[in-house]
UniProtKB/TrEMBL annotation:
Signal peptide bounds: none
A Pfam family that the UniProt record links to this protein: Macro
NCBIfam families on file: PRK00431.1-6
Organism the protein comes from: Ancylomarina euxinus
Protein name listed in UniProt: O-acetyl-ADP-ribose deacetylase
Domain Macro: start-end pairs: 1-169
Amino acid sequence: MKIRLFKGDITQLKVDAIVNAANSTLLGGGGVDGAIHQAAGPDLLEECKTLKGCFTGDAKITKAYNLPCKYVIHTVGPIWRGGQCQEAKLLKSCYKNSLKLAEEYDLESLVFPNISTGVYAYPKEEAAEIAIKTVLKRSSKLTSLKEITFCVFDDTNYKIYQERLNDRL
Ligand code: AR6
């Protein structure tokens, strides 16, 4: 399993699937969700409307339309409420369920954004710990996936991931 770290816009990546940090309506929003819908074009929203939303911690897959990737896996991260509302468990589920969907679709390359660390205000260190642990723990059991990229967008997350992934890159 190849683990990569990329700093920049997830919508530019030509991989099998990118993960979207969506909200439970799956009807678009700001942040990475807004950027993905903007770049994919209106057909993405039309397909998302047929999905009838998504629970926090779950994931659903769509085509990618005008994006250079093949699929978008939409997952809904938890809103940070202080840490006593199952946030860690739900964030872990986002990564687990996205990996599961990618394997079901036989995908080889997948990119994760830093789910919940923007508008949903999850502390970045703790979110990175969960993201990396969950992915690395499963990496030996994955069959179709050959390459997983963590896409960071801000300097803080970049530093955090660089330090934590240091010996894996
Ligand atoms: N490429 C990669 N990462 C990005 C991009 C981009 N183009 N734009 C932002 N990020 P957020 P959340 C990073 O707020 O916290 C939306 O409105 C950003 O710097 O996008 O899970 C949804 O509809 C941050 O590190 O998602 C929901 O309502 C990370 O992506 C809500 O926000 C996640 O930030 C979800 O909040």
